[in-house]
Specification:
16-stranded antiparallel beta barrel; 2 helices; about 55% strand
Amino acid sequence: MKKFFSCGLYLILALIMIGCAKSPQSKFDRIKAFNNNSVDLTPYARYIKKQKIITEEQGKRLSVNVFENSNTGDYLKSQLNYLDPQFEILNTSQEFDLDNNKFNLLLPILQIKITGGTIIRDENNEIVRLIGVNDQTIFDNKYQYGSTYFIQNGKIIRTVSVGNKAIWEANITWDGDLPTKEETKVTVNGKIIVRMINYFFYNHKGQLIKEEHDIINSENISNVYEIFYTEYNQYGDWIKALKYSKDQISVEPKVTITREIEYW
């Protein structure tokens, strides 16, 4: 499942308020990899143990986000760190204990901290839901959190997450074995606050080469940006990307993104 939040989702929420000894490599299943990662973090041909995503603008580091998966491709943990003080509320962590079907989540923007939340599986042992209640160690409330994953032909096609007063829904369109569009809608108290439409483009090898993001606020004002993946490693995974604003006059990219990868 897409157990951790993508950076794009946190941009949405902001608008409303991978060493050691090598383990055997399991047979790679790319659809499973897509289901367990956001599209931009999905490995191309080999499972990733740990990956670090670093964003910079004009030489200034903006964020360092780390994601870890098991040698069978299952999501284990993530740590999102935004370095600008104005985005500290986006510094978020999540961790899965798959043996005991428990998870921890720190989501400050929604004043949520879950310790020992419950992972629910279906008859095929697929994770289909997360449920938890604030442990009240940081935030003095009893807000509930839940995420539900809808699967069709082995692929996640929709997710619905609820926390505090916010509900965010993501619908994913697939073309064969590749997700090509993800449309997310965030509502608060029944009112649509923001929508985000992401398009994903691939080359003839099935490698991600471009994303286009359209963020539309409650006043129907659109902000469009593009990400171009420009460098790849020996396993076919991208390791560098450039982000541009659609209305940008300068040919210089707004943000440079690098990806450090450790494999199983």
